[in-house]
């Protein structure tokens, strides 16, 4: 027979320096994400397997990547770190973290799916998503120059944060961990369910596209006392029908909370920018004066020294030395400019960023409160109006504190300007320089202003020395931005403020829910942390309530493995789960050793329990590929190493010849399901005994022998072991058993009509 072209076209091959422990193809583009043993996350192109970017492991995020998942739109890659128990959402365009959160367990598996369910309520919600964009001003981008922390806003617009929101159509990130930990995050950010009660460590998770059920594969240690060598796999199905029956409400609530999380991130970054705009030079005044106190011999207080200079124009020799030798005229000018530029940057950030961010936050929280009050729709999802009310109040307090900061900046700028102008002239006089006549004019009002500033800001505070190592707090803005202090060093003076006195004396207004509480003693960071804490509580409740409604619908023990012989990373292990969206069937692929041959087993479950055939299981073995030898003894000669669903109709497998000898080849092949499920109900005949593990009754499972015709190719010179595929992009990536050698293929090069398979029972 004529020698056929090998199926599938190889488009790249690489030997990699580090062992690869995870691979995931992008759902939308020819990109593959890899994680390696060193904790790096890499993005490669299909063509020549060229590297696009790499994200090295980071102290803050973590070093041990144990799960990867793409958001269905392919714009965000999520990866889970087991050592720090963090999930990072990373931009596909550049290796930067857009958002991250912690979970309570070591992460072992992630799956990110899109909800395909359509209904009119949802469609109208999807279309109305832009309402808030019409009502709210566009969030201004964070300034370019503070790019160290605000890395995520390196563009001039804040569209980076919008990337995080992504498409309005609901998608869900399902995270599994050790000891039965499962959580579902809507849009990858808002936790909508915390599921408990599943035994073992998650090795596979799959949420059906209608949100009715989650399939889980867990690995359970046989018994706690035995050496943890023997573990067994179990497949369970969880009923999440609360999510599907309240799909529009869940979507709407999740979307709101996603907006809220995004805004909190924006406010946090704005604050970071403000802290960076505040420079250390502003501390100079305080530290110079403190040093002066420590070194001077006279008993006159610093305040009086300056007062004497102001009123009599004469300075003590010590003050002269401080001003002329340490501060200097040049230094004074520089300090004045620093204060001016720094304060005005901070002021701009408060007005444009903090305020617009918090107003948007108030808007979304108020909408959420309205939803919470619509009890018949939202109560059963755990949305709680009183909690949201508290969150609104906390945001209000934050806005008040930001306004207070504006006032402090405002008065500080005025004070420093007048003080520096006076001091500048005084110092020019000391150096007997010519003083320009326009600088010399100082009205009585100006003198009073400076005197007031000296009285209020230049008083020595010994107790401050123990707290801060300085006697003075002339500079009043920094205390709002310093994160280590909950309390302000010099809170604003509220004496004589008519509104405060009015509130103090009015019993009714004190408890009024309409007035946001004001914390005069507290720093901006304290109020922000309080706000984040309260909002966090709001975010937690639905997940617990929805999680409690989830229950196990089905459970079966699959098979036992012994850990010792397996050095391969857990990440690549079969079993593999797949959800066929159109017919809502869950498939589980796994291999069990059967007479030293690994057959591939396919377990399929209809999630719709009304069907007569709910579960079916089949084993598939691969017959001799070149059908020339019709020797039956040779028909079962391939073991399956790895198997993944390529699309709803096809499974991609890596096979090896089971008689292991030199020169035996490994094979990449496509297995069409049509060749396995020939007759609709044939897989229904197996009736398992639920008291036993599946591998104890493997003799009863009917086996199909499949002969691959032309959907296969030999992988020459490669000890292939694992495969990762994407049927949408029609690509596959094969990895060797040493985890360093990679080959990528385009899978359907020529379509010569349907491939006819032969079956033999």
Describe the structure.
The protein has 18 helices and 30 strands. A six-stranded mixed beta sheet has the order 18-19-20-21-25-30, with no helix packed on it. A four-stranded antiparallel beta sheet has the order 1-29-28-27, with no helix packed on it. The model is unreliable at about 145-155, about 625-635 and about 750-760 (pLDDT under 50). With about 750 residues, it is of the alpha+beta class. About 35% of the residues lie in helices and about 25% in strands. The protein has a domain at about 1-5 and about 575-755. It starts with 8 loop residues before the first strand and ends with a strand. Strand 15 (about 215-220) and strand 16 form a beta hairpin. Its main location: nucleus. This is Anaphase-promoting complex subunit 4. It is found in: Nucleus. One of its GO terms (cellular component) is anaphase-promoting complex.
What does this entry show, briefly?
The chain is α+β, with helices and mostly antiparallel strands. The chain is 33% helix and 27% strand.
Helix-strand blueprint:
Elements: E1 9-15, E2 20-25, E3 31-36, E4 41-45, E5 51-55, E6 65-70, E7 76-81, E8 86-91, E9 97-102, E10 107-114, H1 120-128, H2 131-135, H3 159-165, E11 171-177, E12 182-186, E13 190-195, E14 201-207, E15 213-221, E16 230-239, H4 241-245, H5 247-277, H6 284-295, H7 302-312, H8 317-327, H9 329-373, H10 375-378, H11 385-430, H12 437-440, H13 444-457, H14 462-468, H15 478-481, H16 498-505, H17 507-510, H18 524-549, E17 551-562, E18 576-580, E19 585-594, E20 597-606, E21 615-622, E22 638-647, E23 650-657, E24 666-672, E25 703-707, E26 712-715, E27 720-726, E28 731-736, E29 741-746, E30 758-760
Parallel strand pairs: 21-25
Antiparallel strand pairs: 1-29, 2-3, 3-4, 4-5, 6-7, 7-8, 8-9, 10-11, 11-12, 12-13, 14-15, 15-16, 16-17, 18-19, 19-20, 20-21, 22-23, 23-24, 24-26, 25-30, 27-28, 28-29
Helix pairs in contact: 3-5, 5-9, 7-13, 8-9, 9-11, 11-13, 11-18
């Amino acid at each position: 027979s004529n020698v056929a072209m090998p199926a599938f076209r190889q488009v790249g091959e690489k030997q990699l320096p580090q062992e690869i422990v995870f691979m995931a193809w992008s759902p939308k583009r020819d990109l593959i994400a890899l994680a390696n043993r060193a904790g790096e996350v890499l993005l490669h192109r299909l063509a020549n397997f060229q590297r696009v970017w790499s994200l090295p492991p980071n102290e803050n995020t973590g070093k041990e990547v144990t799960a990867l998942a793409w958001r269905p739109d392919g714009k965000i890659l999520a990866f889970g770190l087991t050592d720090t128990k963090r999930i990072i959402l990373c931009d596909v365009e550049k290796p930067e973290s857009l958002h991250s959160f912690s979970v309570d367990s070591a992460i072992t598996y992630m799956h990110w799916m899109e909800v395909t369910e359509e209904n009119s309520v949802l469609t109208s919600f999807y279309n109305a998503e832009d309402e808030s964009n019409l009502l709210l001003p566009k969030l201004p981008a964070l300034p370019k120059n503070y790019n160290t922390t605000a890395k995520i806003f390196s563009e001039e617009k804040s569209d980076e944060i919008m990337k995080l929101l992504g498409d309005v159509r609901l998608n869900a990130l399902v995270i599994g961990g050790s000891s039965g930990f499962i959580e579902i995050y809507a849009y990858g950010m808002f936790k909508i369910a915390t599921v408990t009660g599943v035994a073992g460590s998650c090795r596979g998770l799959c949420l059906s596209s209608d949100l009715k059920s989650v399939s889980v594969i867990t690995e359970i240690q046989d018994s706690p006392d035995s050496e943890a060598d023997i573990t067994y796999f179990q497949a369970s199905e969880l009923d999440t029908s609360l999510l599907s029956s309240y799909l529009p409400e869940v979507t709407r609530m999740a979307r709101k909370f996603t907006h809220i999380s995004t805004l909190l991130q924006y406010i946090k970054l704005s604050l970071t920018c403000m802290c960076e705009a505040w420079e250390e030079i502003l501390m100079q005044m305080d530290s110079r004066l403190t040093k002066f106190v420590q070194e001077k011999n006279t008993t006159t207080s610093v305040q009086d020294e300056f007062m004497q200079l102001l009123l009599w124009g004469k300075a003590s020799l010590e003050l002269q030395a401080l001003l002329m030798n340490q501060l200097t005229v040049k230094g004074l000018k520089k300090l004045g400019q620093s204060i001016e530029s720094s304060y005005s940057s901070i002021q701009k950030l408060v007005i444009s960023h903090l305020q617009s961010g918090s107003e948007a936050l108030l808007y979304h929280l108020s909408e959420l409160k309205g939803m919470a009050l619509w009890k018949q729709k939202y109560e059963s999802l755990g949305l709680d109006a009183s909690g949201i009310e508290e969150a609104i109040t906390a945001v209000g307090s934050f806005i008040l504190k930001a306004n207070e900061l504006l006032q402090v900046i405002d008065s500080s700028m005025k004070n420093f300007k007048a003080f520096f102008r006076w001091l500048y002239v005084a110092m020019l006089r000391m150096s007997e320089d010519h003083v320009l006549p326009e600088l010399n004019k100082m009205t009585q009002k100006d003198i009073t202003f400076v005197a007031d500033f000296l009285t209020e800001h230049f008083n020595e505070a010994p107790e401050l020395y123990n707290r801060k190592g300085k006697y003075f707090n002339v500079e009043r803005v920094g205390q709002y931005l310093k994160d280590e202090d909950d309390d302000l060093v010099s809170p604003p003076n509220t004496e004589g403020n008519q509104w405060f006195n009015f509130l103090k004396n009015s019993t009714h207004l004190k408890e009024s829910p309409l007035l946001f509480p004001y914390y005069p003693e507290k720093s901006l960071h304290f109020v922000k942390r309080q706000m984040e804490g309260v909002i966090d509580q709001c975010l937690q409740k639905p997940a617990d309530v929805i999680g409690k409604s989830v229950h196990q619908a089905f459970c079966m023990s699959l098979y036992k493995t012994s850990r010792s012989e397996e050095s391969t990373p857990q990440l690549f292990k079969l079993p593999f789960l797949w959800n066929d969206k159109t017919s809502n069937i869950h498939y589980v692929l796994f291999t069990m050793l059967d007479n030293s041959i690994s057959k591939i087993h396919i377990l399929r479950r209809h999630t719709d329990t009304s069907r007569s055939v709910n579960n079916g299981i089949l084993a598939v073995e691969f017959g001799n590929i070149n059908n020339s030898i019709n020797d039956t003894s040779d028909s079962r000669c391939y073991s399956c190493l790895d198997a993944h669903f390529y699309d709803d109709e096809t499974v991609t497998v890596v096979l090896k010849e089971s008689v292991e000898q030199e020169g035996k080849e490994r094979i990449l092949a496509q297995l069409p399901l049509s060749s396995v499920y020939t007759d609709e109900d044939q897989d229904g005949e197996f009736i398992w005994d639920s008291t036993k593990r599946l591998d104890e009754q493997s003799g009863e499972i009917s086996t199909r022998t499949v002969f691959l015709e032309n959907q296969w190719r030999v992988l020459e010179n490669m000890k292939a072991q694992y495969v990762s595929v994407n049927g949408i992009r029609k690509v596959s990536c094969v990895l060797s058993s040493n985890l360093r050698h990679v080959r990528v293929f385009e899978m359907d090069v020529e379509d010569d009509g349907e491939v006819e398979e032969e079956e033999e029972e």
